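Sharing a chain and its predicted structure for anyone who wants a worked example. Both blocks are below, sequence first, tokens second.
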Amino acid sequence: MKRALITGISGQDGSFLSELLLEKGYEVHGIIKRESIEDPDHKLPNIRHLLGKIHLHQGSLTDHLSLYKLFQKVQPDECYHLAASSFVSYSFAHETEILNSHFTGTHHLLATILEVRPTCRFFFAGSSEMFGEPSVSPQNEDTPFNPKSIYGISKVASLHLIRNYRQKEKMHASVGILYNHESPRRGRQFVTRKITSTVARIKLGLAKELVLGNLDAHRDWGYAPDTVNAMWQMLQQPEPDDYVLATGKLHTVREFVTLAFSAAGLDHRDFVKTDEKFFRASEKNPLCGDSSKAQKKFGWECGKPLREIIREMIEEDLKRVGSGGDAA
């Protein structure tokens, strides 16, 4: 039986990846924080249904010794590094946290694998934010990186570190450059979940309006379970590599909003307002990914239409709000 270790196991991607690996017969282990172990009902909603089927370990990516001991104990065949701080922030404290989580944490994992389990295959979750303000659209693996946030910078730095381990140490370490991918398990801090959860509250009479930024901003939105499947496929390849994982299709926030309200039987024009404080700087070239390399190498595709993704999110948020759940 193969063993996998997942950082960020309680997030959207970690939960779907856990389900996928369990279906494939893996023994699944995850690293979580102490407060999550002490309060699993509130801290681990995405994997609550998996408790008892997966093995959770308290740990920190910034503590090399604890990772060393954990790898000695688990001896994983595959390691998926999904943990990340997703907020764009310019406070020094938060930037330090992001650098520690992404770069230092990645370094500790790679060094530990080399020391303890050199045959372990490694996946790192990169981001379209690595391209920042791209020179071309769509972007592929050869597009120059141009990050504009500490988040994007830390991801690019981690990618170069991984490439160094791959080249010098012959480690099977791959990077997925992930574009936006959605599901009902998406965190509420993301605009897509803000939209669907607010639509659900409006539908049930618990809210009166939805306030957003630029409705004409474009995004490349995929489906989280499809993206997670690509992570696993990448580690089954004979050679490690880097892959853009995206739909290659752009939709506006306005389209997303229209579809979300429509799925709830409402007209968005009756409820949506805009506020300039939520506007981002205009994009000369939008973030849109070309995943033809992944398609050619292992036949991957992100096939679920955005309309169906949104409908699934709305239906789930209606259930959560209706039962007094976490879609507030």
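Comments welcome. The chain has two domains: 3-181+221-245, 187-220+250-287+305-322.
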